[in-house]
Structures are given as structure tokens and as C-alpha cells.
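Example record used in the benchmark description.
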Amino acid sequence: MHIRKFAIDSGEEVVVKVLREVLDLYRIAVADEDVVLDSIGVHSETTDDSPLRVRTEVSFTDVDGAERRRETTSEARVGENPRSERHRLIKKNFYDLLREELHLQEAPWGILYGVRPSKIVHRWLDSGASRAEVIARLRAEYGVGEDKAALLVDSSLYQRPFLQQSDTKTISIYAGIPFCPSRCLYCSFPAFVLPGEKMLRRFTEVFFRDLAAVREAVARYGFRVQNIYVGGGTPTSLPDAIFEDVLRSLHDAFVSDALVEFCVEAGRPDSMTPAKLESMARYHVNRVSANPQTMQARTLRRIGRRHEPEDIVRMVQDLKAAGIPCINMDVIVGLPGEDARDVKDTMEKLSELAPDDITLHALALKKGSRLKENLAETELPDDETAREMFSVAMASVKKMGLTPYYLYRQGYQSGQLENVGCCRPGAESMYNIQIMGERQTILGIGGAATSKIVSPTQKYLKTSFNPKEITVYLDKVDYYIEKRNRLLREVFGE
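Model output (C-alpha cells):
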């Protein structure tokens, strides 16, 4: 849908952002051709009363100049941050008026935006709200659809006992290996095709220096490491000897009786070898993500994968034979050229492998990906088809006996959907629960790794990012080590 002009009476950056997010929900863009309206104008007024109230008026001007105006007034909830409430009410008012005027369907997630919607739910649950009350608030305050609200609340409730297994001294470790055998069509991760021996040698030297600094910090503050997650990139793309060195160093530095999970991303069967299987078994890796994304051979070729569905089957069988106790598999819903029949076939093939955990990802159109850059040349499912595909996938995982237990969202996802992890009882990824909850300190090592240092009161966190560009990380690792240490001192003291 195209309009010639979108006028906002506020230059406030956040207000402009949230209103444009509503236009994006319904693919409403400003253009000079194929327009359905000449303009949409938004005017909002905020009272200083308690509770705060926001009145929003929206004008709709037809191409022939005829104008219609709609308005509504909403009231903030007592006890919430007034500034955040003002922005939410402006956005919700515009969303409601736009839908009413243009006869638009409810968006699956309404106006709820951001990667970790479960954080809102946990905050409300912490205050004593019941399941029904939280669902009602999501519906009323954010316009979240009934089924999505229930999914979000139920997965959050599932997490509660696991989040309670942590305290201020319990942390996780993330090790970032930013290399892959090749770059997938949809990928925007800061990952690079595996470099030559010289660059790899330099990377490992810097990585181990970074690791030693984190090991020292763990000892200094008396931290207990609950989870180790080796991600990337594709860590198994490393040569066998370097891969073993990485696992041995992580094991020696951080494994203790407190450890719950030691996970390795192994998303590419063309990167797996018998030696890597032996290394994972030797250093007590107890969870592996073997990520097919799809079991359709033509799609694998289209997205730039160098393997066949049969290779995924063999890798999973090899992982089980090696004694890896928990296997996760990722699926992307909405890949180019696929429809619900392809998803059904993929899920049936995965069901035969009996994974312990399946994460369903709605395809996200990410900046920096080849898919985003060549979107005009790519056949993607429309939103309605993507939702049908996701429904088929969810029905399949439930038939396998897997239960949704964590959820997160990304920008520009197919069908305005989400990513949801589903597992059998006892196969929950503690790391994934913690990274989404942001209630536990996570120290990042390696390329593009992020450290999130949570205050003992859990009222704030400080974040440090290792650079995405690998040469910057290699040249300036000492600067980023000191930055992480400084934030640790600010939060936990000397």
C-alpha cells in the first residue's frame, strides 16, 4: 500500500520511530505511484494529569483531496514509566485508528516490538499478576493476538523455575567463532568464510588471550559458570586441531560441578569430522545444535548450503553414536520457494530423527544479507503463506511431544512472526533461557561476542561488544578486554 505523504506533528525521534513501525506492520510506504491515499497525518497531545492521558488524531486525505479525521484518547497505567507509557499510547492509538479506517486485520503481535517480549511478561509475573491477567494486558495494551499472547505467557511461565536456578554469582560464557564454510543467502551474522592458516593462527592466539582474561575475572569475582555456549559462525568449521584446542581451553577454564550446559553450534554437516565428534565427547559437550534449516534439497542449494538432507541425517546419527545427550535442530520457516507442503515434509523428516529440541525461526530479512540485497530477484512466501507454514511447523513439534519454552523476535520477520524453541521435558537449553531473560551475567569471548553484565539487583545491565570486524578484534583485543573489566568493576566492585 502506497501513500504520497506521512506527516507527524512531532520531531521527537522515538515518536517518529514508533509510528513508522506501525506503517511497516502493514507494508504502508511513501511513494508517488499506485497510491491509495494522498496522505496520513498524526497529531498527539499528552495531558500532565495523573494518570497520564494521550489524545491522538489521525487525518486521512484521499487522492481527490477529501479528508477524514479520527481520534481516540487512552490512559496510562499507574506505576509504569510515564515516558514509555506516552510512547506506547501514541503508537497504540495510531495502530487502532489506522486499522479502523483502512479495515486492516489485527497484526499477530500488535504493537509489541523488540527482541525479548518475555521480559515484559516476567516483570508483570514478578508483580503478582496471574496468567489470565498478563494475557489480558498484552491484548489490551499492545494489541497482541490471543494465540500469540498465550504462547508468550506460557513459554515465560515454563522458564520461571529455570531462571530461579541462578543468582548474582552464577554466569554463562559465550565463545564466538566467527567463521563458516560458506555464507548462506539469508545470513547477516558477523561471520566470515574460513580464512587461511596464518589468519587462523592469529585468531586463536587472540582468542586464548581473551579467554584467559575472562578466566581471571571468574576467579576474581567468585563466579560460578552455569553454561558455556560455543557459537558463531560455525565453530565446527575450524580445523580439527584448533577446534580441540578451543574446547579443551573452555573446559579447563570453566567446567566445574556448577556447569549445567556445554553447547556447541554445529550447523553445517560439511564441517563435521570424526575427530570433532571425539573432541566433543572428550570434553563433555552435552548439547549440540545441528541446524538443517530445511530438509528440501533444492532449497539447500538455493540458500548456499553445501550439503544434502542425507548429510544432516548422518550427522545426527553420528552425534547420537558419540554419546551427545541433547541435540537441537533449527528450522527456518519462509525460505525462498517453499510453502506449507515443504515445511510439512521437512518436519516429518526431522521427526524421524527424534531431536530433543527444535527451534522454529521465521525468516528475517536482515541488512547485510545477500537475500536482502537481492530481494527483487527472490521468490518469498507472502505473510499469509508464512503464517500457514509456521502453523504447520508448530503442529508438528507438538505432535512430537515438544513444548514451547523460549521465544524471541527479530525485525522484518516473515508473517510478522517469531522464533520459538520447543523441547522435550529435561532438554531445555539453560543458556537460551538465560540469554533471553537477561537476568544473568554472560561474558563473551571471541569475535563479535557480547558481554552482558547484570547488576546484583537485576535493575540494570551493562553491555560490552567485541567488534564484528575480525581484524579490529585481532588488533584491539586488549582494549575490549579492559572495557569488559571496567564494566565488571563498575557493577561488582574491585
